[in-house]
Design a protein that fits this description.
heterodimer; A: about 350 residues; alpha+beta; five-stranded mixed sheet; B: about 220 residues; six-stranded antiparallel sheet; two-stranded antiparallel sheet; 5 helices; 8 strands; globular
Chain lengths: ~350, ~220
Protein backbone atom coordinates (compact mmCIF):
# COMPACT_ATOMS: atom_id res chain seq x y z
CA UNK A 1 0.00 0.00 0.00
CA UNK A 2 2.29 2.73 -1.23
CA UNK A 3 0.58 5.92 -0.31
CA UNK A 4 1.89 9.43 -0.58
CA UNK A 5 3.42 9.62 2.86
CA UNK A 6 5.37 6.43 2.29
CA UNK A 7 6.69 7.86 -0.99
CA UNK A 8 7.96 10.92 0.83
CA UNK A 9 9.65 8.72 3.39
CA UNK A 10 11.41 6.69 0.72
CA UNK A 11 12.46 9.80 -1.15
CA UNK A 12 13.76 11.52 1.97
CA UNK A 13 17.47 12.23 1.82
CA UNK A 14 20.15 14.07 3.78
CA UNK A 15 22.80 16.11 1.97
CA UNK A 16 26.18 15.06 3.35
CA UNK A 17 29.50 16.80 3.13
CA UNK A 18 32.12 14.16 3.80
CA UNK A 19 35.58 15.22 4.90
CA UNK A 20 38.55 12.90 4.80
CA UNK A 21 40.10 12.63 8.23
CA UNK A 22 43.45 14.38 8.31
CA UNK A 23 45.33 11.31 9.47
CA UNK A 24 44.22 9.55 6.30
CA UNK A 25 45.37 12.30 4.01
CA UNK A 26 48.52 11.25 2.17
CA UNK A 27 48.31 13.75 -0.63
CA UNK A 28 49.04 17.43 -0.91
CA UNK A 29 46.83 19.42 -1.02
CA UNK A 30 44.20 17.60 0.97
CA UNK A 31 41.21 16.61 -1.12
CA UNK A 32 38.05 18.70 -0.95
CA UNK A 33 35.05 17.16 0.78
CA UNK A 34 32.71 14.89 -1.13
CA UNK A 35 29.07 15.86 -1.48
CA UNK A 36 26.62 12.98 -1.36
CA UNK A 37 22.87 12.73 -1.02
CA UNK A 38 22.16 9.98 1.48
CA UNK A 39 18.78 8.26 1.54
CA UNK A 40 17.18 8.53 4.97
CA UNK A 41 16.16 4.89 4.95
CA UNK A 42 19.63 3.79 3.87
CA UNK A 43 22.84 3.10 5.75
CA UNK A 44 26.16 4.92 5.62
CA UNK A 45 28.32 2.00 4.45
CA UNK A 46 26.17 1.75 1.31
CA UNK A 47 27.46 5.17 0.30
CA UNK A 48 31.08 4.09 0.35
CA UNK A 49 31.22 3.15 -3.36
CA UNK A 50 30.06 6.70 -4.13
CA UNK A 51 32.47 8.37 -1.73
CA UNK A 52 35.65 6.39 -2.14
CA UNK A 53 36.44 7.58 -5.68
CA UNK A 54 36.78 11.12 -4.37
CA UNK A 55 39.48 10.15 -1.94
CA UNK A 56 41.24 7.12 -3.30
CA UNK A 57 44.19 9.07 -4.63
CA UNK A 58 44.77 10.68 -1.28
CA UNK A 59 44.84 7.59 0.86
CA UNK A 60 47.94 6.10 2.43
CA UNK A 61 48.84 2.59 1.29
CA UNK A 62 47.20 -0.33 3.01
CA UNK A 63 43.82 -1.88 3.54
CA UNK A 64 40.69 0.12 4.17
CA UNK A 65 38.50 -0.21 7.19
CA UNK A 66 35.99 2.54 6.73
CA UNK A 67 34.03 4.35 9.37
CA UNK A 68 32.40 7.73 9.88
CA UNK A 69 32.25 10.16 12.72
CA UNK A 70 30.24 13.28 13.51
CA UNK A 71 32.12 15.73 15.73
CA UNK A 72 34.22 12.93 17.09
CA UNK A 73 31.38 10.53 17.78
CA UNK A 74 31.84 7.31 15.76
CA UNK A 75 28.66 6.64 13.84
CA UNK A 76 26.83 3.39 14.33
CA UNK A 77 26.51 2.19 10.77
CA UNK A 78 23.56 -0.10 11.41
CA UNK A 79 21.28 2.78 12.37
CA UNK A 80 19.50 4.23 9.32
CA UNK A 81 21.16 7.44 8.15
CA UNK A 82 18.04 9.56 8.68
CA UNK A 83 17.77 8.41 12.28
CA UNK A 84 21.40 9.29 12.96
CA UNK A 85 20.80 12.75 11.57
CA UNK A 86 17.60 13.35 13.53
CA UNK A 87 19.22 12.18 16.72
CA UNK A 88 22.65 13.78 16.59
CA UNK A 89 21.72 17.13 15.08
CA UNK A 90 19.23 18.82 17.35
CA UNK A 91 19.35 21.77 15.00
CA UNK A 92 19.46 20.18 11.55
CA UNK A 93 22.74 20.91 9.83
CA UNK A 94 22.58 21.12 6.05
CA UNK A 95 24.75 19.84 4.56
CA UNK A 96 25.56 17.47 7.36
CA UNK A 97 29.33 17.52 7.86
CA UNK A 98 30.74 14.08 8.52
CA UNK A 99 34.28 12.79 8.65
CA UNK A 100 35.26 9.60 6.91
CA UNK A 101 38.13 7.40 8.06
CA UNK A 102 39.83 4.69 6.09
CA UNK A 103 42.02 3.42 8.90
CA UNK A 104 41.89 2.83 12.59
CA UNK A 105 38.49 1.24 12.88
CA UNK A 106 37.36 1.63 16.51
CA UNK A 107 36.49 -2.02 16.93
CA UNK A 108 36.20 -1.69 20.67
CA UNK A 109 33.22 0.60 20.09
CA UNK A 110 31.74 -0.25 16.70
CA UNK A 111 30.75 -3.67 15.46
CA UNK A 112 32.59 -4.50 12.26
CA UNK A 113 31.27 -3.69 8.83
CA UNK A 114 33.28 -5.31 6.12
CA UNK A 115 30.98 -4.80 3.20
CA UNK A 116 27.42 -4.73 1.96
CA UNK A 117 26.72 -8.21 3.36
CA UNK A 118 27.05 -6.92 6.88
CA UNK A 119 24.51 -4.18 6.21
CA UNK A 120 22.17 -6.60 4.49
CA UNK A 121 22.21 -9.07 7.38
CA UNK A 122 21.67 -6.34 9.89
CA UNK A 123 18.59 -5.40 7.86
CA UNK A 124 17.36 -8.99 7.60
CA UNK A 125 17.86 -9.64 11.31
CA UNK A 126 15.95 -6.47 12.17
CA UNK A 127 13.20 -7.51 9.77
CA UNK A 128 12.99 -10.92 11.48
CA UNK A 129 12.77 -9.30 14.86
CA UNK A 130 10.07 -6.91 13.67
CA UNK A 131 8.11 -9.76 12.17
CA UNK A 132 8.45 -11.72 15.38
CA UNK A 133 7.00 -8.78 17.25
CA UNK A 134 4.13 -8.19 14.83
CA UNK A 135 3.19 -11.73 13.86
CA UNK A 136 4.49 -13.69 16.83
CA UNK A 137 6.89 -15.67 14.68
CA UNK A 138 9.37 -14.98 11.91
CA UNK A 139 8.57 -17.90 9.67
CA UNK A 140 7.54 -15.77 6.70
CA UNK A 141 10.92 -14.11 6.55
CA UNK A 142 12.68 -17.41 7.12
CA UNK A 143 10.62 -19.10 4.40
CA UNK A 144 11.21 -16.40 1.87
CA UNK A 145 13.26 -17.69 -1.03
CA UNK A 146 16.86 -16.60 -1.24
CA UNK A 147 16.19 -14.61 -4.38
CA UNK A 148 13.14 -12.86 -2.91
CA UNK A 149 15.16 -11.89 0.13
CA UNK A 150 17.90 -10.59 -2.16
CA UNK A 151 15.40 -8.63 -4.22
CA UNK A 152 13.79 -7.15 -1.14
CA UNK A 153 17.16 -6.00 0.12
CA UNK A 154 18.10 -4.64 -3.28
CA UNK A 155 14.89 -2.63 -3.43
CA UNK A 156 15.80 -1.02 -0.10
CA UNK A 157 19.38 -0.37 -1.18
CA UNK A 158 18.20 1.30 -4.34
CA UNK A 159 15.32 3.13 -2.72
CA UNK A 160 13.00 1.41 -5.19
CA UNK A 161 9.61 1.67 -3.55
CA UNK A 162 7.78 0.03 -6.44
CA UNK A 163 9.91 -3.10 -6.27
CA UNK A 164 9.62 -3.14 -2.49
CA UNK A 165 5.85 -2.81 -2.65
CA UNK A 166 5.63 -5.82 -4.95
CA UNK A 167 7.73 -7.97 -2.65
CA UNK A 168 6.68 -6.95 0.85
CA UNK A 169 3.28 -8.71 0.71
CA UNK A 170 5.25 -11.96 0.73
CA UNK A 171 6.20 -11.11 4.29
CA UNK A 172 2.53 -11.29 5.28
CA UNK A 173 2.98 -8.80 8.07
CA UNK A 174 -0.16 -8.27 10.10
CA UNK A 175 -1.20 -4.68 9.74
CA UNK A 176 -1.45 -2.29 12.62
CA UNK A 177 -4.80 -0.71 12.39
CA UNK A 178 -6.55 2.06 14.08
CA UNK A 179 -9.97 1.62 15.48
CA UNK A 180 -11.71 2.62 12.28
CA UNK A 181 -10.17 0.07 9.95
CA UNK A 182 -10.25 -2.57 12.66
CA UNK A 183 -13.96 -3.04 12.23
CA UNK A 184 -13.55 -3.63 8.51
CA UNK A 185 -10.84 -6.24 8.94
CA UNK A 186 -12.59 -8.15 11.70
CA UNK A 187 -15.11 -9.24 9.11
CA UNK A 188 -12.41 -11.20 7.31
CA UNK A 189 -10.39 -12.92 10.00
CA UNK A 190 -8.49 -15.05 7.49
CA UNK A 191 -6.70 -12.01 6.22
CA UNK A 192 -4.96 -11.57 9.53
CA UNK A 193 -1.74 -13.37 10.15
CA UNK A 194 -2.53 -12.44 13.70
CA UNK A 195 -0.27 -13.78 16.25
CA UNK A 196 -1.74 -10.93 18.08
CA UNK A 197 -3.19 -12.77 21.01
CA UNK A 198 -6.74 -13.87 20.62
CA UNK A 199 -9.16 -14.69 23.35
CA UNK A 200 -11.73 -17.46 23.13
CA UNK A 201 -14.18 -15.37 21.11
CA UNK A 202 -11.51 -14.76 18.46
CA UNK A 203 -11.40 -11.05 19.20
CA UNK A 204 -7.98 -9.48 18.83
CA UNK A 205 -6.60 -8.53 22.21
CA UNK A 206 -2.96 -7.57 22.37
CA UNK A 207 -0.97 -6.15 19.55
CA UNK A 208 2.73 -5.32 19.43
CA UNK A 209 4.48 -2.72 17.32
CA UNK A 210 8.25 -2.70 16.71
CA UNK A 211 9.75 0.54 17.99
CA UNK A 212 13.30 1.72 18.47
CA UNK A 213 13.49 4.69 20.74
CA UNK A 214 16.57 6.89 20.96
CA UNK A 215 16.34 9.18 23.94
CA UNK A 216 18.45 12.21 24.72
CA UNK A 217 17.99 13.84 28.02
CA UNK A 218 18.89 17.42 28.83
CA UNK A 219 18.70 19.22 32.11
CA UNK A 220 17.42 22.60 31.26
CA UNK A 221 14.92 24.26 29.02
CA UNK A 222 16.15 25.77 25.81
CA UNK A 223 15.00 28.55 23.60
CA UNK A 224 16.35 27.24 20.34
CA UNK A 225 17.50 23.86 19.21
CA UNK A 226 20.91 25.37 18.59
CA UNK A 227 21.25 25.72 22.33
CA UNK A 228 20.95 21.99 22.89
CA UNK A 229 24.40 20.73 23.86
CA UNK A 230 26.11 18.30 21.54
CA UNK A 231 26.48 14.63 22.16
CA UNK A 232 29.98 13.55 23.15
CA UNK A 233 29.42 9.86 23.32
CA UNK A 234 26.71 7.27 22.75
CA UNK A 235 26.47 6.95 26.52
CA UNK A 236 24.56 10.23 26.38
CA UNK A 237 21.78 8.44 24.55
CA UNK A 238 19.43 5.82 25.89
CA UNK A 239 18.50 3.27 23.30
CA UNK A 240 15.35 1.28 23.85
CA UNK A 241 14.57 -1.58 21.52
CA UNK A 242 11.23 -2.37 22.99
CA UNK A 243 7.89 -3.06 21.28
CA UNK A 244 4.88 -0.95 22.04
CA UNK A 245 2.19 -3.26 23.36
CA UNK A 246 -1.42 -2.40 23.60
CA UNK A 247 -4.78 -3.91 24.20
CA UNK A 248 -7.20 -3.15 21.49
CA UNK A 249 -10.24 -1.57 22.98
CA UNK A 250 -13.37 -0.33 21.39
CA UNK A 251 -13.12 3.38 20.79
CA UNK A 252 -9.61 3.64 22.11
CA UNK A 253 -7.14 5.49 19.97
CA UNK A 254 -3.50 5.65 20.97
CA UNK A 255 -1.52 8.77 20.29
CA UNK A 256 2.21 9.01 19.69
CA UNK A 257 2.47 10.47 23.17
CA UNK A 258 0.75 7.43 24.65
CA UNK A 259 3.18 5.15 22.88
CA UNK A 260 6.33 7.02 23.94
CA UNK A 261 5.15 7.39 27.49
CA UNK A 262 4.30 3.73 27.77
CA UNK A 263 7.80 2.84 26.66
CA UNK A 264 9.29 5.11 29.30
CA UNK A 265 6.80 4.71 32.11
CA UNK A 266 9.30 5.40 34.83
CA UNK A 267 10.05 8.68 33.28
CA UNK A 268 7.02 10.35 31.88
CA UNK A 269 3.32 10.14 32.31
CA UNK A 270 1.07 8.30 34.67
CA UNK A 271 3.22 6.62 37.29
CA UNK A 272 0.28 4.58 38.52
CA UNK A 273 0.26 2.30 35.52
CA UNK A 274 3.82 1.17 35.89
CA UNK A 275 5.34 -0.70 38.76
CA UNK A 276 3.27 -2.62 41.21
CA UNK A 277 5.70 -1.61 43.89
CA UNK A 278 4.13 -0.37 47.04
CA UNK A 279 4.95 3.19 47.79
CA UNK A 280 2.55 3.37 50.67
CA UNK A 281 5.15 1.95 53.00
CA UNK A 282 6.53 5.43 52.92
CA UNK A 283 4.84 7.88 55.23
CA UNK A 284 5.50 10.57 52.72
CA UNK A 285 3.06 9.22 50.16
CA UNK A 286 1.76 12.69 49.45
CA UNK A 287 5.22 14.06 49.13
CA UNK A 288 6.29 11.18 46.95
CA UNK A 289 3.39 11.90 44.63
CA UNK A 290 4.38 15.52 44.53
CA UNK A 291 7.93 14.57 43.59
CA UNK A 292 6.68 12.20 40.96
CA UNK A 293 4.92 15.05 39.33
CA UNK A 294 8.26 16.61 38.65
CA UNK A 295 8.54 14.27 35.76
CA UNK A 296 10.49 14.54 32.65
CA UNK A 297 8.87 16.17 29.68
CA UNK A 298 8.98 15.23 26.03
CA UNK A 299 10.42 18.29 24.32
CA UNK A 300 10.75 16.87 20.85
CA UNK A 301 9.98 13.67 19.00
CA UNK A 302 11.37 13.26 15.52
CA UNK A 303 10.48 10.60 13.03
CA UNK A 304 11.80 10.63 9.45
CA UNK A 305 12.95 14.17 10.07
CA UNK A 306 9.50 15.39 11.03
CA UNK A 307 8.94 17.06 14.36
CA UNK A 308 5.86 15.20 15.40
CA UNK A 309 2.79 16.55 17.07
CA UNK A 310 2.39 14.13 19.90
CA UNK A 311 -1.36 13.87 19.57
CA UNK A 312 -1.24 12.21 16.17
CA UNK A 313 -2.81 8.73 16.20
CA UNK A 314 -0.03 6.24 16.67
CA UNK A 315 -1.38 3.81 14.09
CA UNK A 316 -1.05 6.46 11.39
CA UNK A 317 2.51 7.15 12.46
CA UNK A 318 3.44 3.49 12.30
CA UNK A 319 1.80 2.74 9.00
CA UNK A 320 3.25 5.73 7.23
CA UNK A 321 6.57 6.50 8.85
CA UNK A 322 8.12 3.14 9.62
CA UNK A 323 11.35 2.02 7.95
CA UNK A 324 11.45 -0.79 5.40
CA UNK A 325 12.38 -3.34 8.06
CA UNK A 326 9.07 -2.51 9.76
CA UNK A 327 10.62 -0.69 12.67
CA UNK A 328 9.50 2.74 13.75
CA UNK A 329 12.55 4.75 14.81
CA UNK A 330 11.80 7.65 17.13
CA UNK A 331 14.37 10.21 18.29
CA UNK A 332 13.21 11.84 21.46
CA UNK A 333 14.57 14.80 23.32
CA UNK A 334 13.40 14.95 26.90
CA UNK A 335 13.90 17.35 29.68
CA UNK A 336 15.07 15.36 32.68
CA UNK A 337 13.01 15.35 35.83
CA UNK A 338 14.14 18.01 38.24
CA UNK A 339 15.19 16.76 41.63
CA UNK B 1 -1.60 -13.10 30.88
CA UNK B 2 -1.23 -15.46 33.82
CA UNK B 3 0.41 -14.48 37.08
CA UNK B 4 3.80 -15.27 35.61
CA UNK B 5 4.28 -18.26 37.87
CA UNK B 6 4.34 -20.68 35.02
CA UNK B 7 5.52 -20.66 31.48
CA UNK B 8 3.44 -22.52 28.96
CA UNK B 9 4.30 -20.96 25.64
CA UNK B 10 8.06 -20.90 25.86
CA UNK B 11 8.12 -17.18 26.56
CA UNK B 12 8.88 -15.07 29.61
CA UNK B 13 7.52 -11.76 30.77
CA UNK B 14 10.01 -9.19 31.99
CA UNK B 15 8.87 -9.83 35.57
CA UNK B 16 9.19 -13.57 34.97
CA UNK B 17 12.73 -13.02 33.80
CA UNK B 18 13.65 -11.24 37.03
CA UNK B 19 12.24 -14.11 39.06
CA UNK B 20 13.84 -16.78 36.89
CA UNK B 21 17.17 -14.97 36.94
CA UNK B 22 17.35 -14.82 40.68
CA UNK B 23 16.34 -18.46 41.00
CA UNK B 24 18.99 -19.41 38.46
CA UNK B 25 21.71 -17.41 40.21
CA UNK B 26 20.79 -18.95 43.57
CA UNK B 27 20.88 -22.52 42.29
CA UNK B 28 24.14 -21.88 40.45
CA UNK B 29 25.73 -20.61 43.62
CA UNK B 30 24.73 -23.75 45.48
CA UNK B 31 25.43 -26.40 42.88
CA UNK B 32 28.11 -24.95 40.66
CA UNK B 33 30.82 -23.84 43.00
CA UNK B 34 33.65 -24.42 40.59
CA UNK B 35 32.46 -21.18 38.98
CA UNK B 36 32.05 -17.75 40.48
CA UNK B 37 28.42 -16.73 41.07
CA UNK B 38 26.25 -14.79 38.63
CA UNK B 39 25.37 -11.29 39.70
CA UNK B 40 22.22 -9.33 38.93
CA UNK B 41 22.92 -5.96 37.35
CA UNK B 42 19.94 -3.61 37.67
CA UNK B 43 19.27 -1.30 34.77
CA UNK B 44 20.18 2.09 36.01
CA UNK B 45 19.56 4.33 33.15
CA UNK B 46 22.12 7.05 33.32
CA UNK B 47 20.47 9.28 30.82
CA UNK B 48 17.05 9.05 32.34
CA UNK B 49 18.39 9.32 35.89
CA UNK B 50 15.91 6.90 37.33
CA UNK B 51 16.58 3.30 38.15
CA UNK B 52 14.11 0.67 37.18
CA UNK B 53 14.31 -1.79 39.99
CA UNK B 54 12.64 -4.60 38.13
CA UNK B 55 14.78 -4.75 35.06
CA UNK B 56 18.31 -5.94 34.79
CA UNK B 57 20.52 -8.68 33.49
CA UNK B 58 22.70 -11.48 34.84
CA UNK B 59 26.43 -11.16 34.60
CA UNK B 60 29.23 -13.69 34.92
CA UNK B 61 32.58 -12.15 34.20
CA UNK B 62 36.27 -12.81 33.99
CA UNK B 63 35.99 -16.50 33.39
CA UNK B 64 39.48 -17.64 32.58
CA UNK B 65 39.76 -20.09 29.73
CA UNK B 66 42.92 -21.88 28.80
CA UNK B 67 43.02 -22.87 25.18
CA UNK B 68 44.21 -26.39 24.55
CA UNK B 69 45.36 -27.93 21.30
CA UNK B 70 43.19 -31.01 21.47
CA UNK B 71 39.73 -31.36 22.89
CA UNK B 72 38.45 -34.83 23.65
CA UNK B 73 35.00 -35.24 22.08
CA UNK B 74 33.37 -36.42 25.30
CA UNK B 75 34.41 -33.44 27.26
CA UNK B 76 33.50 -30.41 25.24
CA UNK B 77 33.53 -28.03 28.15
CA UNK B 78 35.73 -25.05 28.47
CA UNK B 79 38.93 -25.69 30.31
CA UNK B 80 38.20 -23.36 33.15
CA UNK B 81 41.36 -22.61 35.01
CA UNK B 82 41.37 -23.82 38.52
CA UNK B 83 45.07 -23.37 38.92
CA UNK B 84 47.74 -21.43 37.17
CA UNK B 85 49.04 -24.19 34.95
CA UNK B 86 49.20 -22.77 31.46
CA UNK B 87 49.29 -24.89 28.35
CA UNK B 88 51.29 -24.18 25.28
CA UNK B 89 49.38 -22.81 22.35
CA UNK B 90 50.15 -22.68 18.69
CA UNK B 91 50.67 -19.29 17.17
CA UNK B 92 48.29 -18.70 14.31
CA UNK B 93 49.45 -15.82 12.17
CA UNK B 94 46.10 -15.38 10.45
CA UNK B 95 44.19 -14.33 13.54
CA UNK B 96 43.90 -10.74 14.55
CA UNK B 97 45.04 -11.21 18.09
CA UNK B 98 48.38 -12.90 18.28
CA UNK B 99 48.01 -15.84 20.52
CA UNK B 100 51.21 -15.82 22.44
CA UNK B 101 52.39 -18.65 24.57
CA UNK B 102 50.76 -18.60 27.97
CA UNK B 103 48.09 -16.22 26.77
CA UNK B 104 44.93 -16.49 28.80
CA UNK B 105 41.50 -15.74 27.42
CA UNK B 106 38.87 -14.19 29.62
CA UNK B 107 35.16 -14.34 28.95
CA UNK B 108 32.23 -12.30 30.15
CA UNK B 109 28.70 -13.71 29.87
CA UNK B 110 25.53 -11.70 30.19
CA UNK B 111 22.01 -13.07 30.16
CA UNK B 112 19.79 -10.29 28.92
CA UNK B 113 16.02 -10.26 28.44
CA UNK B 114 14.76 -9.57 24.94
CA UNK B 115 11.45 -7.75 24.96
CA UNK B 116 11.09 -8.47 21.28
CA UNK B 117 11.40 -12.25 21.52
CA UNK B 118 10.28 -12.51 25.16
CA UNK B 119 13.09 -14.89 25.94
CA UNK B 120 16.52 -14.57 27.51
CA UNK B 121 19.50 -14.03 25.21
CA UNK B 122 23.10 -14.93 25.91
CA UNK B 123 25.71 -12.31 25.14
CA UNK B 124 29.39 -12.96 25.54
CA UNK B 125 32.76 -11.45 24.80
CA UNK B 126 36.32 -12.63 25.02
CA UNK B 127 39.44 -10.63 25.77
CA UNK B 128 43.00 -11.20 26.81
CA UNK B 129 44.62 -10.04 29.97
CA UNK B 130 45.44 -6.66 28.47
CA UNK B 131 41.74 -6.13 27.78
CA UNK B 132 42.00 -6.35 23.99
CA UNK B 133 38.87 -7.96 22.58
CA UNK B 134 39.19 -11.36 20.93
CA UNK B 135 37.93 -11.82 17.42
CA UNK B 136 35.47 -14.56 16.56
CA UNK B 137 38.26 -16.51 14.88
CA UNK B 138 40.11 -16.67 18.15
CA UNK B 139 37.00 -17.35 20.20
CA UNK B 140 36.14 -20.27 17.90
CA UNK B 141 39.20 -22.05 19.20
CA UNK B 142 37.73 -21.92 22.67
CA UNK B 143 34.25 -23.06 21.65
CA UNK B 144 33.10 -26.68 21.51
CA UNK B 145 33.56 -28.12 18.04
CA UNK B 146 29.84 -28.61 17.33
CA UNK B 147 29.29 -24.92 17.88
CA UNK B 148 32.06 -24.13 15.46
CA UNK B 149 30.55 -26.26 12.70
CA UNK B 150 27.15 -24.67 13.29
CA UNK B 151 28.85 -21.31 13.00
CA UNK B 152 30.18 -22.23 9.59
CA UNK B 153 26.74 -23.23 8.38
CA UNK B 154 24.83 -20.26 9.70
CA UNK B 155 27.28 -17.41 9.68
CA UNK B 156 24.69 -14.70 10.05
CA UNK B 157 22.02 -16.34 12.09
CA UNK B 158 23.62 -18.29 14.90
CA UNK B 159 26.27 -16.28 16.70
CA UNK B 160 26.20 -12.68 15.58
CA UNK B 161 28.29 -9.75 16.63
CA UNK B 162 25.99 -7.01 17.77
CA UNK B 163 25.97 -4.14 20.11
CA UNK B 164 25.19 -5.00 23.69
CA UNK B 165 21.70 -3.63 24.33
CA UNK B 166 22.90 -1.49 27.25
CA UNK B 167 26.65 -1.11 27.12
CA UNK B 168 27.33 0.50 23.73
CA UNK B 169 30.03 -2.03 22.96
CA UNK B 170 30.27 -4.92 20.51
CA UNK B 171 29.45 -8.28 22.01
CA UNK B 172 28.66 -11.68 20.56
CA UNK B 173 25.13 -12.89 20.85
CA UNK B 174 23.44 -16.25 20.51
CA UNK B 175 20.51 -15.59 18.25
CA UNK B 176 17.22 -16.06 20.08
CA UNK B 177 15.12 -17.12 17.10
CA UNK B 178 13.78 -20.56 17.95
CA UNK B 179 14.35 -20.36 21.70
CA UNK B 180 10.63 -20.28 22.35
CA UNK B 181 10.13 -23.50 20.41
CA UNK B 182 12.71 -25.63 22.13
CA UNK B 183 11.79 -24.31 25.54
CA UNK B 184 8.24 -25.46 24.80
CA UNK B 185 9.64 -28.88 23.98
CA UNK B 186 11.54 -28.92 27.24
CA UNK B 187 8.49 -27.94 29.23
CA UNK B 188 6.45 -30.69 27.63
CA UNK B 189 8.80 -33.18 29.16
CA UNK B 190 8.59 -31.63 32.62
CA UNK B 191 6.27 -33.27 35.11
CA UNK B 192 3.82 -30.66 36.41
CA UNK B 193 0.49 -29.82 34.88
CA UNK B 194 0.54 -30.39 31.14
CA UNK B 195 3.06 -28.14 29.51
CA UNK B 196 3.61 -25.80 32.41
CA UNK B 197 7.11 -25.02 33.51
CA UNK B 198 7.59 -23.11 36.73
CA UNK B 199 9.21 -19.75 36.09
CA UNK B 200 11.99 -20.52 38.58
CA UNK B 201 13.24 -23.29 36.38
CA UNK B 202 13.03 -21.40 33.10
CA UNK B 203 16.57 -20.06 33.06
CA UNK B 204 18.01 -23.28 34.41
CA UNK B 205 16.40 -25.24 31.59
CA UNK B 206 17.32 -22.60 29.07
CA UNK B 207 20.92 -22.49 30.17
CA UNK B 208 21.22 -26.27 30.17
CA UNK B 209 20.90 -25.99 26.39
CA UNK B 210 22.38 -22.60 25.61
CA UNK B 211 25.33 -22.93 27.95
CA UNK B 212 26.55 -25.92 25.97
CA UNK B 213 27.04 -23.75 22.92
CA UNK B 214 29.70 -21.82 24.77
CA UNK B 215 30.96 -24.83 26.64
CA UNK B 216 29.42 -24.04 29.99
CA UNK B 217 27.73 -27.01 31.55
CA UNK B 218 25.46 -27.01 34.53
CA UNK B 219 25.29 -29.83 37.03
CA UNK B 220 22.14 -31.96 36.85
CA UNK B 221 21.23 -31.06 40.42
CA UNK B 222 20.34 -27.60 39.26
CA UNK B 223 17.45 -28.97 37.25
CA UNK B 224 15.57 -30.21 40.32
Amino acid sequence: MANEAVKYVWEGAIPLQIHLHKSDVASHPAPPPALVLAPRIGYLPLLIPHIKPYFKDSLPPGEDSIWFDYKGVPLKWYIPTGVLFDLLCAEPERPWNLTIHFRGYPSNILIPCEGEDFVKWNFVNSLKEAQYIINGNCKNVMNMSQSDQEDLWTSVMNGDLDAYTKLSPKLKMATIEDDFSRKASLSSPQSRQGATEMDVAGQVKTARVPVRLYVRSINQDFENLEDVPEIDTWDDISYLNRPFEFLREEGKCFTLRNAIESLLPEFIGDKAQTSGEERSKDDDTEEADGLLREMGEIKLARIQGIEMKLEIPFSWVVNNLMNPEFYLHISVLVKAPQR
Amino acid sequence: MNSGREVSDGRLTVEGFSVAARAFADKWKIHNQSFPPWSWVPLINRTLHLSNQEEGYLSLEEILILSSLEESPEDESLNVATDCLEKEESVDHTILVQNQENEAHYYDFHIVYSSSYKVPVLYFRGYCSGGQPLSLDVIKKDLPSCSVSLLHESKWTFITQEEHPYLNRPWFKLHPCGTEDWIKLLSQSSISTGCQMPVDLYLVSWFSVVGQVVGLRIPLEMLN
